[in-house]
Amino acid sequence: MNHQNIPHQLAELASHRDFIQTAEIALVTNHKPQTVRKAYCLTGEYFGIRPKKLGNRLLWPVADVARLLNGGAA
Fold first, then answer.
1. pTM of the model as a whole
2. Is residue 11 included in any domain, yes or no?
């Protein structure tokens, strides 16, 4: 994972992980976790970011979230 382009708040939250959980992506995008889950349920993505499924959890790639927060398309 490229740590150079990751916003400070996201870097602290991810703490060297490649994926973050739904509650964490909701926090950095200023939404509630249910909003993230609903968007995923309806479209299969959240702002163009597709998560990985691990058991009953959705894990969101930090690199894609960083790209979104930096103003780019995911």
1. 0.86
2. no
State both tokens at 25: 């992506």
The answer to whether the CB of 58 falls within 8 A of the CB of 51 is yes
Q: How many domains does the chain have?
A: 1
More confident residue, 60 or 7: 60
Q: Is residue 10 part of a domain?
A: no
- Among candidates 4, 7, 42, 48, which has minimal Cα distance to 28? 7
Contact 58, 38 (CB under 8 A): no
Confirm if 48 and 71 have CB atoms less than 8 A apart. Answer: no
For residue range 29-64, list pLDDT tens digits in order.
999 999 999 999 999 999 999 999 999 999 999 999
Q: Determine the structural domain holding residue 51 and report its residue range.
A: 20-69
